[in-house]
Inverse folding.
């Protein structure tokens, strides 16, 4: 395993982390007695194999249902001083609820302390305020630090880049969990800000939210050769030394195998990556033309600036992926979260796009005349069964 200094924490962080949202039994709290023995056995085998590989950062959250409780059966059997354990708790308007939720996490994990506590979901102005105000959730986290229950405090986010940078610039956090990978590089400015503040940088779900790369379409497989899509994405992320660790949302012990192949390639990134990136970029041009491929995103309105809260940038991005790379399953899954994801996945679908006037909000887009029809066509391609965030099901 390779390790990188995790910012100001000075922790030696493995470049892969064992994320805890795919191996648990339920997305809700359940008694241990209801967890099937084969599920618990699989989880424990996954954690032990992770530790054997040197992937000693185990990451979970209060919002991951039975994950913490199930981890509490195996973590105390491993050398505590060799583990880096992270859990995350969502900010609350009432900070006493935040503290109560953390205490529940600690009890479920069956540990005396966690190494990393992430304030889970600084995604918008409300969650920022609930965290940062005097007497808010960050102050509670500081109290927990003083009590020895937390070593370092960070935050996780699905928010807009400007929201992430605002939180980073407070200089109150030791690390950040954020989305950034080949198909979505919007948060690079936030990573640069985190680097300036000497924060650890943890990439959320690069193989799942980064394109469901564990079940890639054949076209994407071809475009990424000689790498697999998973290996390409890992290598792309880790080629930047200010990215410290990628979450592997392992569902079973063998899920680490493909990622481990990247470790021997990191000293060859300048040779391996450019041809694959060039092929992916050229395919976008081949499919849509150079003008669209290079300018589709310019001066698009945010969902807050758009009638009916339609998330135009997200929808056009998903259309690009579905058509250029055959990533239809991924695009449909993400599109149908719109309207159902709250501040974790904001904005709405474009199902009623013909009933609203987009002229004003698109006035600065070079593609203003085409976008309404493109949105209508995209809805026909991507519409399907409504999807909810897993933690709300």
């Amino acid at each position: 395993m390779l390790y990188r200094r995790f910012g100001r924490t000075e922790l030696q962080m493995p470049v892969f982390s064992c994320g805890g949202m795919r191996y648990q039994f339920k997305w809700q709290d359940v008694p241990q007695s209801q967890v099937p023995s084969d599920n618990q056995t699989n989880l424990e085998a996954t954690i032990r194999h992770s530790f054997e590989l040197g992937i000693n950062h185990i990451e979970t959250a209060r919002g991951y249902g039975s994950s913490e409780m199930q981890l509490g059966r195996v973590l105390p059997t491993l050398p505590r001083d060799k583990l880096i354990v992270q859990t995350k708790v969502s900010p609350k308007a009432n900070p006493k609820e935040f503290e109560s939720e953390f205490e529940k996490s600690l009890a479920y994990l069956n540990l005396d302390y966690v190494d990393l506590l992430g304030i889970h979901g600084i995604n918008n102005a409300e969650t920022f305020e609930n965290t940062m105000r005097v007497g808010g959730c960050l102050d509670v986290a500081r109290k927990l630090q003083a009590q020895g229950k937390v070593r370092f405090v960070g935050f996780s986010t699905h928010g807009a880049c400007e929201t992430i940078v605002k939180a980073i610039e407070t200089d109150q956090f030791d690390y950040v969990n954020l989305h950034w990978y080949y198909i979505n590089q919007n948060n690079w400015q936030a990573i640069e800000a985190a680097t300036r503040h000497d924060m650890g940088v943890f990439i959320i779900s690069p193989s799942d939210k980064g394109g469901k790369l564990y079940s890639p379409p054949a076209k994407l497989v071809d475009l990424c050769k000689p790498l697999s899509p998973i290996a390409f994405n890992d290598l792309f992320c880790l080629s930047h030394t200010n990215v410290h660790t990628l979450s592997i949302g392992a569902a079973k012990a063998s899920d680490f195998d493909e990622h481990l192949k990247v470790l021997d390639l990191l000293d060859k990134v300048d040779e391996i990556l450019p041809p694959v990136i060039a092929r992916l970029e050229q395919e976008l041009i081949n499919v849509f033309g150079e003008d669209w491929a290079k300018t589709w995103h310019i001066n698009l309105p945010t969902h807050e600036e758009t009638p009916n809260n339609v998330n135009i940038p997200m929808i056009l991005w998903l259309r690009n992926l579905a058509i250029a790379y055959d990533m239809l399953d991924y695009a449909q899954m993400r599109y149908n979260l719109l309207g159902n994801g709250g501040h974790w996945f904001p904005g709405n679908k474009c199902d009623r796009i013909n009933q609203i006037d987009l002229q004003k909000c698109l006035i600065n887009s070079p593609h203003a005349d085409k976008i309404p029809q493109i949105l209508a066509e995209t809805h026909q391609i991507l519409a399907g069964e409504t999807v909810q965030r897993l933690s709300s099901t």
